[in-house]
Amino acid sequence: MRILDKYIIKELLGPFVFGICAFSSVFIGTSTLFKIAQYITKYGASVTAVVKLFFLSLPNIVVLTFPMSMLLAALLAFGRLSGSSEITAMRSGGISFYRLTAPVLIVALFVSLFAVAFNEFIVPRANTAYNHIVRYEIERNTAPKSQEHIIIKEVKDGNIERLMYARKYDEATNTLQAISIQEFENGNIVRVQNAETAQWQNSHWIMYNGTIHDLSTAGNLQRTMKFEQQVMPITKNPTSIKREQKDESEMTIKELKQQIKVLQSEYVKSSSYEIELQQRVSIPLASFVFALIGAPLGLQPQRSSSSIGLGLSIIVIFIYYSIMTVTSALGQGGALPVIIAAWIPNITGVIAGCYLMRKAAR
Question: Which ranges does the record mark as transmembrane (predicted)?
Answer without folding.
Answer: 12-34, 54-76, 97-118, 281-299, 306-323, 335-357
